[in-house]
């Protein structure tokens, strides 16, 4: 819209606010809105719908839908969110037959889920290297190879330990534009999730970095701090 965007963090994980240094305490977050200036930050698009943190289809979006049911019954907490994910995995899932295209190279895949991230903090927490690509103006793509329930549970544990990139069942990549088509004959719509909101969208799906920045009111200097922290980490890794 062109309007300045402010955040009062009242969510489950608050990745967007935490990434941009917005305090979780309501009074402190209000002071940021009153005292700081708006700066441009990257957002993603899914079929022209803006997402701030992530967008997905398949198993991940189903887990978010299940999480909302659990939240209405048991309240909002991280423990409830994790419990809903476990329940989704144990209930079983089907793999999607998709054609994905990035940089003009289409390929057929079978995967339980496609996840697209625009939040470096979320990628860092599960141990995926695309965190740096997000800071450099790209989106992070993550897919799973077909895997059973126990395999998914092992991946969940790896993610909790920040070691997801070590798993052979993970396909991760950076991109600026990605097209996803469903190979089912007659498929016109698919259920997706954008920042936790589940809805139906028409196929094909187009993920991309928005050409327009969001004017976010946040504390200054965070981009420079993140770049310096990543440089320090890279230097430490190269010295091992």
Q: How would you describe this structure in keywords?
A:
globular; single chain; alpha+beta; 240 residues; 2 domains; six-stranded antiparallel sheet; Tumour Suppressor Smad4; 8 helices
Q: Find the structural class using helix and strand composition.
A: alpha+beta
> Beta-strand percentage?
25-35%
The DSSP helix count reads 8
Task: Describe the sheet with the most strands.
Answer: 6 strands, antiparallel
Overall tally of structural domains: 2
> What is the CATH class of the largest domain?
Mainly Beta
Which CATH architecture of the largest domain would you pick?
Sandwich
| Spatial strand sequence of the major β-sheet | 3-2-13-10-5-6
Helix-strand sequence: HHEEEEHHEEEHHEHEEEEEEH
How does this structure look, described?
With 240 residues, this protein is of the alpha+beta class. The chain folds into two domains: 1-42 and 213-240, no CATH class; 44-208, Tumour Suppressor Smad4. Helices cover 36% and strands 30% of the residues. The chain has a six-stranded antiparallel sheet with strand order 3-2-13-10-5-6, with no helix packed on it. The chain has a six-stranded antiparallel sheet with strand order 9-8-7-4-11-12. α3 packs across α4 (78-91) and α4 runs antiparallel to α7 (149-160). The model has no long low-confidence stretch (mean pLDDT 86).
Fold topology:
Layout: H1 15-19, H2 26-35, E1 38-41, E2 44-46, E3 49-51, E4 54-58, H3 59-74, H4 78-91, E5 96-102, E6 105-111, E7 113-117, H5 120-126, H6 130-135, E8 139-144, H7 149-160, E9 170-175, E10 177-182, E11 189-194, E12 197-202, E13 205-209, E14 214-217, H8 222-238
């Amino acid at each position: 819209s062109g309007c300045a965007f402010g955040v009062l963090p009242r969510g489950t994980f608050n990745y967007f606010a935490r990434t941009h240094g917005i305090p979780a305490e309501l009074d402190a977050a209000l002071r940021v809105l009153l005292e700081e200036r708006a700066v441009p930050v990257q957002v993603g698009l899914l079929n022209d719908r803006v997402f701030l943190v992530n967008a997905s289809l398949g198993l991940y979006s189903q887990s978010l839908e299940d999480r909302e049911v659990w939240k209405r019954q048991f309240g909002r907490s991280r423990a409830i969110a994790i419990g809903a994910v476990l329940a989704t995995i144990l209930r079983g899932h089907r793999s999607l037959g998709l054609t994905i295209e990035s940089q003009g190279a289409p390929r057929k895949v079978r995967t339980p889920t496609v996840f697209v991230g625009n939040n470096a903090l979320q990628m860092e927490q599960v141990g995926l290297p695309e965190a740096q690509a997000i800071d450099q103006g790209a989106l992070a793509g993550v897919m799973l190879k077909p895997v059973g329930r126990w395999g998914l549970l092992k991946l969940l544990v790896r993610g909790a330990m920040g070691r997801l990139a070590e798993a052979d069942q993970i396909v991760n990549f950076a991109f600026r534009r990605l097209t996803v088509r469903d190979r089912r004959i007659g498929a016109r719509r698919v259920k997706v999730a954008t920042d936790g909101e589940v809805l139906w969208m028409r196929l094909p799906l187009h993920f991309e970095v928005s050409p327009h920045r969001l004017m976010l009111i946040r504390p200054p200097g965070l981009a420079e701090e993140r770049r310096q922290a990543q440089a320090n980490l890279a230097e430490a890794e190269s010295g091992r």
